[in-house]
Amino acid sequence: MKKEITIIGAGLVGSLLGIYMAKRGYKVNIFERRGDMRKERMSAGRSINLAMSDRGLLALEKVGLADEIKKIAIPMHGRYIHNMDGSTAFQPYGKEGQFINSVSRGTLNMKLMDLAEAHGVQLHFNHKCGAIDWTNNQVTFEISATEVYEHRAGIIFGADGAFSAARLQHQLQHDKFNYQQYYIDCGYKELAIPPTASGDFAMEVNALHIWPRKDYMLIALPNLDKTFTCTLFFPFEGEASFAKLTTEDAVKDFFAKTFPDAVSLMPDYVHEFFHNPTSSLVTVKCFPWIREDKFALIGDAAHAIVPFFGQGMNCGFEDCRILDELMDQYGDDWHAVLAQYQALRKPDGDAIADLAINNFTEMRDKTADPKFLLQKKIEARLHDKYPDKWIPAYSQVTFSPHIRYSEALRRGQQQEAIMQKVMQLPDIESKWDSEEVERMVVGEL
Amino acid sequence: MKKEITIIGAGLVGSLLGIYMAKRGYKVNIFERRGDMRKERMSAGRSINLAMSDRGLLALEKVGLADEIKKIAIPMHGRYIHNMDGSTAFQPYGKEGQFINSVSRGTLNMKLMDLAEAHGVQLHFNHKCGAIDWTNNQVTFEISATEVYEHRAGIIFGADGAFSAARLQHQLQHDKFNYQQYYIDCGYKELAIPPTASGDFAMEVNALHIWPRKDYMLIALPNLDKTFTCTLFFPFEGEASFAKLTTEDAVKDFFAKTFPDAVSLMPDYVHEFFHNPTSSLVTVKCFPWIREDKFALIGDAAHAIVPFFGQGMNCGFEDCRILDELMDQYGDDWHAVLAQYQALRKPDGDAIADLAINNFTEMRDKTADPKFLLQKKIEARLHDKYPDKWIPAYSQVTFSPHIRYSEALRRGQQQEAIMQKVMQLPDIESKWDSEEVERMVVGEL
Distance (Å) from the C-alpha of residue B350 to the closest C-alpha of chain A? Predict the structure, then answer.
């Protein structure tokens, strides 16, 4: 008989994993700390947009959800840069026809929950993971201050996010547990751009808007209701920081100087600045992810990353897809499945964590640098002429779901070293598309 | 009035810190989880030797203990290498007259406790740090299963080692706490070499003995009672590992093949192998180390490192010396003292953590490599001719207490890059002491 599957966390990854397992004939129980978001109002101001790209879509295809999600997604074909001087520029993400998708986190999560239930998955809300007894495979959930439920689990998955309670139980009861949590110096705050008076999008809709300002940035993603959700990534401390902007005047002054073209589009930003929460951004790496044939961490619980590559959800969905493929290979041999899952996914989780940190510098600083834009242009040309040999790092991560993150990191570093040399050529501005440059690159590959 | 000083942990660093503070006129209370080691027998088999070098001695000089410790220390002038084929080699640590010191951890700790009490420090044993209430500066100590003591603290120092309870309280109550714990794949086990039948040291006494075997190693440090304490650093899992050596025959077989000349000196090693504990080796990095003017982590509690550079205690003692020097500068302005302490010591703690990890590879693998020995010879020659410009990394860390660890790491990496080029010269074996090599190095500096 197939074992029961206990999933802790009914977020994006927990719900998708439940569907995968139910389709394989497992009895699945998902326990969620919060109430049912389909019945209750979500708290506002925290990461309501996702950038879904090919890895996420590939994982959804396998459960037949990709087409439905595409219908509620807004394609973003590139970065729309808003410079300090009011000028703008558009930088395509990939080749013609390649794009990422702005998707509402809430809508996606609710669709996944519905589909999970349609496949027979049992969802239990307001169940907070307390203790896990590994010997007896027993998970204790707190239902209220006085009420607990003891669940006899088959295989346990911790899919409960960056601050995973399941991981904490695993860690506290594990000898030699490697663990790292690293907060970057910036936090984020969400602001809103409503539709225009005539009811239209206030800016170009099919783009991810960036106001790169070196040490910080504002970004905006489009929503189906013709609003944009803006996110300010901003230092906690220092010259320009959340700590400094403590009065309405200070906020108005700063925004007027720093984001002049955005201010006119955000009628409520001062109120939002003081009422929306300031959230922090953490990277979590840990090891091991599994316990024998009993337990595995998945998604953010295994590898929380910063959002600057738009890969958090994509990576978590890929965890589910890879796990599913391993079950094609190893069937119900959970020892083998989990061991292989960890062996494959740990280096990829580490790699996308590092890539995501690096991309913050790229987004907030380099996208405003003409030299960087020229480099991107050269790389795009190389990609056109040598589509298999030269794939820009961004495209490897975003549009090449069969290249592993760890491979994308390695190849990206190799290509960056070559581009460093290329960019130092005298007169590179005038001969960027010359045969000389092309020969040099091909010679180095 | 001066604030009271509460120190959690009466180990090496806590005791030394207590002396420093008492000498400045502070009322000091030290709370120790264990009983008084001066009255109770210590548990055997865990890191009973220390390699005291110039940083540790400098910190002891300031409290007048250096001379007394030198009397009970055994100078080790270099590495005494035992190769697989039975051949041996001696590699000096520094210049003529430079050496590190084998010191008994227990003896040193007891002397520090005695001196602390002589300075009026109150030592409280069997007090286990439970909760810390930061708002009211109150520390709760568990004395027994039913009895607690609530201590009203002035300034609180967490000096309670790699698995610090004080740090855990700090972490649990701190937003955005950066934390990393990393276990290496090797553990360690202590074995003993008794004196010879005639009552003498069984090997050369003034050296640190190493049996480098690539993925693992055995080392031995001399003790005053003419014994050596051996430590086997060995993988937990894999081909040759603790997991594989589960029978007496397997252990005998392995040692006879791998450490033939050591086996004959260790009559009890098989018994010890199965009865002494296998300990793990962790690196801990965290941030912040301090809370306003109330609290600071110090020693292993702030920066636990692996033992391969012999710097754990030296670094903790240096923490105390730097803190003391900052009080010369800032007096009782604890806000300034702690902020500067953290700003200075965090990068140095990170640096020695990384240096210590790197030195494992050097000790277990490179010390048996003729090419590496040649490189050491070239570097020693450069150091002789340019004593200020070229100081080998090992000497910077060990014999140059006024070079910061972070500076030693930086300069060491720079020198290593130069030496990589030097070692690739054709015929370097024959022209290692030529003017050509010298000119090349000087040109690169």
Answer: 14
